[in-house]
Amino acid sequence: MTRPDLEEVRARLARTGGSWTPHDVATVLRDLGWAVSDAMVLTTVEALHRASTGWGPLDELGHLDGVTDILVNGPDQVFVDRGRGLERVSVHFDDDTQVRCLATRLAARVGRRLDDASPWVDARLPDGTRLHAVLGTLADPGTCISLRLHSGGHMSITDWVANGSISERMAALLGVVVTSRVGFLVSGGTGSGKTTLLSALLGLVPAEHRLLVVEDSRELAPGHPHCVRLECRPPNSEGIGAVTMTDLVRQALRMRPDRLVVGEVRGGELCDLLTAMNTGHEGGCGTIHANSVADLPARLEALAALGGLGREACHCQVAAALDVVVQVSRLAAGRRAVTQIGMVGTDDAGRVVIVEAVTSPDGHRVVAGPGWSRFAARVGLPEAGAP
């Protein structure tokens, strides 16, 4: 054994009753046969503290610069994302029991249950971190933990330009999308930066407009002076008390929104959002998972079906409600960038099609697409030529 067994140390400290001190820790270490030093006592005290109140072995990763995600695949595989793709780190757990204990404790901090009868959890921790965990009874190579760290701040469009994710011209185009009050969606894959971009765009909304933001788990942090945020609630241990996205969208419509924002459209709430955008609520927006702007109609059709909206009705509602789609992608080097702006239209059969208005394959160059003229006319740009 290269270091003290924390579980044994904790068990012996518990027998002392009440709170323990570093002196108690030193005594326990001596009883366990360790040659005690000040450094060992300090290290053990810190480890006990992390294991009981922090993120355990993951604590140090949460303080690294630029970390947005921490992923644990069982006791021996821990990865971080610092904007350059996933990187494996040297941090590890003693065994799967230790991973499970951490996941269970984190879930319990927000009143959520994680055990064999309820083997997964999706929740937001008090500091804003998004937690997802699946027990090893379902996952191989063991209990899996996913932490999406809350930045604690607001990233503006200017920041997107400064870090090289978008060009100044692209920033200007996105700005007119917001100020022209067209209905739009930000689409992209997992971890592509959809929420971060939408949050930045909402900061461009005029200050006199009232934002109503509906989210499954609070992630948007718009730099806007008049923003009301509504968050879903899961059922309690008795299976009651749930508040769904559909519930909140309907309540938001009664709260006099100038802009209705759905943090992530992932189910039947799409129908409520489309209905709202077709009844005078201009400038509505949200995020959605899609691989490209061309793939979005099929995705919308599938989500509308979950809300009981038929195919023909879905296409009619989408065509009337949405004008623009902004595609965010993660490039090969891990950099996030806006790669497409699409214009929503219909074909001869009345089906929704999305035509590229602007492309930016490398995140820097901005190239006009076949939908540029329609886009420029819709958002009120004076030029009819290249972007």
Helix and strand arrangement:
Layout (H helix, E strand, L loop, with lengths): L5 H9 L7 H10 L6 H16 L15 E5 L4 E4 L4 E3 L7 H14 L10 E5 L5 E5 L9 E5 L8 H6 L5 H12 L4 E5 L5 H9 L8 E5 L11 E5 L13 H8 L6 E4 L6 H9 L7 E5 L6 H11 L4 H11 L2 E7 L5 E11 L5 E8 L7 E2 L3 H8 L8
Parallel strand pairs: 7-11, 7-12, 8-9, 8-10, 10-11
Antiparallel strand pairs: 1-2, 1-6, 2-3, 4-5, 5-6, 12-13, 13-14, 14-15
Helix pairs in contact: 2-3, 8-9, 9-11, 10-11
Kindly summarize this structure in a few lines.
The protein has 387 residues and is of the alpha/beta class. The protein is 32% helix and 20% strand.
What key phrases describe this protein's structure?
about 375 residues; alpha/beta; Beta-Lactamase; Rossmann fold; 3 domains; 9-stranded mixed β-sheet; 6-stranded antiparallel β-sheet; 12 helices; 15 strands; about 30% helix
CATH topology title of the largest domain = Rossmann fold
Biggest sheet layout: 9 strands, mixed
Arrangement of strands in the largest sheet: 9-8-10-11-7-12-13-14-15
Which class of the largest domain in CATH terms?
A: Alpha Beta
Computed CA radius of gyration, to the nearest angstrom: 25 Å
* Strand tally: 15
Q: What structural class do you assign from the helix and strand content?
A: alpha/beta
Number of helices: 12
- Helix proportion: 25-40%
Mean pLDDT: 87
Estimated share of beta-strand residues: 15-25%
The fourth-level CATH homologous superfamily of the largest domain is P-loop containing nucleotide triphosphate hydrolases
N- to C-terminal distance: 65 Å
Secondary-structure element order, N to C: HHHEEEHEEEHHEHEEHEHEHHEEEEH
- The CATH level-2 architecture of the largest domain is identified as 3-Layer(aba) Sandwich
User: How many structural units, i.e. domains?
Assistant: 3
Low-confidence residue ranges? none
Shape: elongated
